[in-house]
Amino acid sequence: GRTGKHKARLMRRSVELSRDQARIDSRTGWHQAGSHLLINVAAVAALWLGFRLFEQGSLSGPVLVLLPIALLGLAEIYAMLPDAFGKLGATRAAARRLNSDHSLERAAASPAGSAGELPEGFSLQACDITVGYTGYSPLLSHFTLTLRPGDTVGIVGVSGSGKSTLADTLAGLAEPCRGERHSLPCAYLTQATVVFEDTVKANLQLANPNAGDGDMWRVLEIVELAERFAQDAEGLGTWLGSAGNRLSGGEARRLVLARVLLSQAPVVILDEPFTGVDEATRTRISPQISRWLQGRTVVCLGHGPDALLASDRILHLG
């Protein structure tokens, strides 16, 4: 019975997003038109003023020609400003989300979900939790999971069964509707692949700021990306993103997977770790990842057993 509600909600969001995008495009267009008009008017004014000064003998011919050309050259610089201002709202919204995530991380470390309430010898515990979205039917009810260091558990479920919401809850980024969750510090690979426009090193050090170059090359070897970046003259300093080295979907996924592996957290949660990674590569790197994470508590979620790391046991949702 949730299909109709979700469809209506998605349609409303789609209409709102289309309306917002049209408003942003219109505003950006006006800004671009205004900047071009300003540059052209300034060039004409410089040419007119230059002629007046040339007639008075205060300006040489070459300088007269250079004035409007110099102003028109500035157009390439100013042309980027409207688009940057058009993205200001999105940038500020992203900053608010990052601040919110930081607050959630601190909340996850608070006494309500701290390791202090874990039974001795355990690393993660979910006690009869219910997860879902406010105002909607629960996605998952009465879920209980208790893990020790060294345990690896796989969780399998179809789309919409609540895997990602459960992963958010186990990682402490979302509160359960009912029940309690307690855990040691954890590293979390979300379903979304997020690579920042920065160097390879900066992207990896988000998980462990104190990691050395040797550690970073090691995790890149595990996910078979070391050779990819070793071929670049900058190595770990290779710039990623629209202004630098572009990664394929599978390469980006393996990079964020390497970032999680670099973390020293005793609990690791992986939501669809091999999204976009071809089967042959997945088959090669999966055993290496399992060996690297040996001794830690690992929760791996996916659509099927083939999308998981080797697990001690597999739970099926739905």
Topology overview:
Blueprint: H1 2-55, H2 61-78, H3 80-86, H4 88-108, E1 124-131, E2 140-147, E3 152-156, H5 163-171, E4 178-183, E5 186-189, H6 200-205, H7 213-222, H8 226-230, H9 249-262, E6 267-271, H10 279-292, E7 297-302, E8 313-316
Parallel strand pairs: 3-7, 3-8, 5-6, 6-7
Antiparallel strand pairs: 1-2, 1-4
Quick synopsis:
This protein is an alpha/beta fold.
Q: Average pLDDT value?
A: 85
Could you say which structural class the secondary elements and strand pairing correspond to?
alpha/beta
The number of helical elements comes to 10
Indicate the CATH class of the largest domain.
Answer: Alpha Beta
Radius of gyration: 27 Å
The share of residues in extended strands comes to: 5-15%
Q: Biggest sheet, open or closed, and with what strands and sense?
A: 5 strands, parallel
Series of H and E elements: HHHHEEEHEEHHHHEHEE
Give the CATH H-level superfamily of the largest domain.
P-loop containing nucleotide triphosphate hydrolases
Task: Give an overview in words.
It is a single chain. Helix 10 links the parallel strand 6 (267-271) and strand 7 (297-302). The strands form two sheets. A five-stranded parallel β-sheet has the order 5-6-7-3-8, with helices on both faces. It has a three-stranded antiparallel β-sheet with strand order 2-1-4, covered by helices on one side. The relative contact order is 0.11. It is built from ten helices and eight strands. 50% of the residues lie in helices and 14% in strands. Helix 1 runs antiparallel to helix 2 (61-78), helix 1 runs antiparallel to helix 3 (80-86) and helix 7 crosses helix 9. With 318 residues, the protein is of the alpha/beta class. This is Thiol reductant ABC exporter subunit CydC. Keywords: ATP-binding, Membrane, Nucleotide-binding, Transmembrane, Transmembrane helix. GO terms for molecular function: ATP binding; ATP hydrolysis activity; ATPase-coupled lipid transmembrane transporter activity. Residues 124-318 form the ABC transporter domain.
